[in-house]
Structure formats: C-alpha cells, structure tokens
Amino acid sequence: MTERNLLIDPCWSAKDLGEPLPSRPHAVSVALPRWEDVIAYEEKVPACINSLKAIYPRFGFNPFVAEVARKSLEFHGESNKSSWPYPNRASALSAQEYCLRKNSDCFSKIEDFLGVSCLIIDQKNTSSAKAFWQHTGLGLSSREAAIALGKEKKPLTSDGDYAREELIKRLANIYNCDKCLIRLHRSGMAALTTIISAINCIKGTSSTLQIGFPYVDVLKLPQIIFQGSDLIIKTKLNHIKEELDKKNPAALIIEIPSNPLLQCVDLISISKLAKEKNIPVIVDDTIGSSLNVHLTPYADVIFSSLTKSFAGRGDILAGSTVISPYSKWKKEIAEIIPKVALSTLSDSDAIELELTSRDVKDRLKRLNQSCLKLKEKLETKKEISKVLHPQYCKNFNSLLKKGGGYGCLLSFELKGGIEESKRVYDSLRVNKGPSLGTNFTLVCPYVQLAHFKELKWAESCGVSEHLLRVSVGLENEDELWSRFNSVI
C-alpha cells in the first residue's frame, strides 16, 4: 500500500469514501467525506459499508481481523454463527461470560484457530458479543491477526519486551511517577475495563458516576458491561455533593477535558470531596494529555488512549493506566491490576508505538499551537455561533503545567444549523472521519457518529447534532486556515 500524504492530499471528496486514514494496513480511521456518508454508515447502507477499507478497530473488524473471524467459522463448520477473535482464552472467556449473563440460553463456544481464541456465538446473541468487543476494547489487534494469518512476520518477544519497557519509561517521565505504577493495555477502553474491574475488587460491585458529558464508550462501558453508571451534567459542586451522598458510587469517572464539548470540571474540588467520601477518582486524559496538565494529585488512576496524540500516526490501538503516587489506594490497585488485566499490548503493537511516540513531546507542542491558532481564527468568523476549546476554562487552566497547552481538539457550531453544517462539512478540503490526535487534521460530525440513535438525548445534554469536531494536525497553519476560511 503506497502511503498517501494526507497533509497535502487529504481524503475529503466523494471519491475518497472508505479510504483508510492513514493509507496503512492497520489504520484506525476511515474516510467519510460527505455528511450523507456518515448517515449511510450509521444506517448500515450496504453501498457505504461495502466501500469501507478500514474502520475504527473497536467499532468493527479491520480486514485482517475479519479474515481470521471468517476462516475460523469455516474451519470449525459454523458458517451460520459469528466469530469474535481475542488474543487469549481469558479474554474470550470474559466475553462469553458476559453473553451468557445477557442470555443464559445462548449458544456459544470458544475455539482456537491459528493461535487465536475465537468466541463463536449464534446470530441471535451476536449483538451481545459485539457490545463486549466494542466497549471493552479487549479484542485481537489487526497486527496480531496479520501475524496469525502469516501475512506479517512475528517479532521477537525480546523486542516486544524492550519496546514495552521503553514506553513505560516514557510514560513515567510524562507522569513523574515510578514505572511500577504504569501498565500498558491494548486500547484505552481496555485500560478503563481493567480499572473498573480493579475498583470493583476494592469497593464492591456498585455503579460508577460520570461527571460531565463524556466520550460515548467511557459512559457505555460501565453502563452496559459492568454494574451501571449515572451521568451528572450539572457540574456545580453542591449538586455533585448531593449526588455522591445519594448514590455512593464505586468511583467517579471524569474526562479532562470532555469530548466533544472541551469543558473541564473543577477536578481539584471534586477530588477533595471524593477523598472525604472515600470514593476513587478515575480520570481520562486522552484529550488534555498529561504533557499539558498535572493530574496525579487529584486522580487515583489516570487512563489514556495512546492511539490518539501519543501515537500520532493513526495506525496503532493502545492504552495505558497510571496509578497516582498520591492515591490512598495506590498499593491495593497496583496489586490488583495485574490480576484482573486480561491481556497486555502485543509485541508488534508495542514496537510500533515505541517508534512512533519518540517525538511525542515536540509533536504535541505543535498540535497545541496549531489548534489554538485555528481556534482563534474561527472565532473571527461571523458565520460561527460558538467555538468550543479549553483556553479560557478556569478549571482547565488550574491544572496546566508550565509550558503546557490545550491539546489538539476543538469543536464549533454554525449559525445556519444542520444544513449549513452539512454544506461546510462536505466542502472542507481536510480528512474527514472518526478518531483524533492524528498527525493529519480530522473533522467529523461527532454527535451523528457517536449518538446517532440518541440525538434528542444528546441535545438535552447541551450537545448539538450539527456540531463539527476538529482534531488539528501538523499541516502548514496558513494552508489549513485557508481550507476552513474558503468554505465558512
């Protein structure tokens, strides 16, 4: 596959539908260049779905994973079932147990194929298998699938061990903590799955509490896979205190800042309140990045999707957990996480992540700067009703490190409503698809992708269906602005 230079030749027009972003075999995003493509994708229109050469790995199967799944069914003579490949038997068993909890009468079995553990399940219960795959992020990676199929070479275990050690050193430097407090995972959601499992061992199996409108799966994982999760949209401290007294959750889950509204709650005050009530605080720093913000004094555990700006390249799925050195549960969590973690980052994915994250500090500074400049220019456009970005958020600024910035993400709304958003989206000469943190700019109508079946609910939470989310990349800043300016 010849790699397309997405900085100067973006996938933005109708002919680019379904192109992998980036043009690599393990791409985690896919081009949805027109608004109608986004709707067709959500409605599972065959012409759109059949055009996709890639997909975000938790939302569907990379072609390599799809091939493993298909061949496993053929090998075991189960063509009328679905197959869900996992890296080991423990992960597949966890998926099977979930499906049996949802329906004790479902047909399911775990079969080994090419060294992969496949959960094979009847069509009636495939939706449960899909939910577990999507929300937990524990599935087989595309690199593992390619190796199983003999299409890519298996790396030396020693090379994988070295890469993981280097990555943990890199993260320890960012978070200013001991290496023993850090663990790598196969996705950001796998990291959160592990944290919730660990907290349940300490606090018991009660529901969690999400503060502020969150990224879709950060909310759905505890709601669907675990014991439930409540959502607080009103983030004033007195309201949060009332909810904590009423619900006594197992943990609080907070994004810094939130996706896609880029808002930031008063983490410092909430942390103090949670400590008084003996409730752990879990923080997602994927967007804000702990290169920019100082979170360990206020969180008990921090998780991150390393797929995003840490990797940058857009073709590696990975995650991390960092236990705060200040947490009262530090020792307990550190002991439990290895026991409940079902897998780790694979050798092949770790090797690629180590390579592509070597420049993360310098690259993130550039992303911070480019995003801020685009935000300031968008604010000058009378056609835009609001630009969402954490620059003037007092709560975010209270966490800012010296020399830190605001990340690569912004969102905006147009005065013309959904029809104007459609026009601008279709006309923008930038890459368009899901995910964020890539070296190339990515735009998407986020709410249409994340909340297509619950648009009214999202609107009731203050999240507009015509909001456009922008992950700013490393394009020339003047060139990038000209692309936006020419269509707004």
TrEMBL record:
Highest taxon of the lineage: Bacteria
Coiled coil: 350-384
Single GO BP term: transsulfuration
Keywords: Coiled coil, Pyridoxal phosphate, Transferase
InterPro entries cross-referenced by the UniProt entry: Cys/Met-Metab_PyrdxlP-dep_enz, PyrdxlP-dep_Trfase, PyrdxlP-dep_Trfase_major, PyrdxlP-dep_Trfase_small, Trans-sulfuration_enzymes
Cofactors (names): pyridoxal 5'-phosphate
EC number: 2.5.1.48
Top EC category: transferase
Residues spanning the membrane: none
Pfam families: Cys_Met_Meta_PP
Example of a GO MF term: pyridoxal phosphate binding
Signal peptide (from-to): none
PANTHER family for this protein: CYSTATHIONINE GAMMA-SYNTHASE-RELATED (PTHR42699:SF1), PTHR42699
Similarity field: Belongs to the trans-sulfuration enzymes family.
Record-given protein name: Possible Cystathionine gamma-synthase
Naturally occurring in which organism (per UniProt): Prochlorococcus marinus (strain NATL1A)
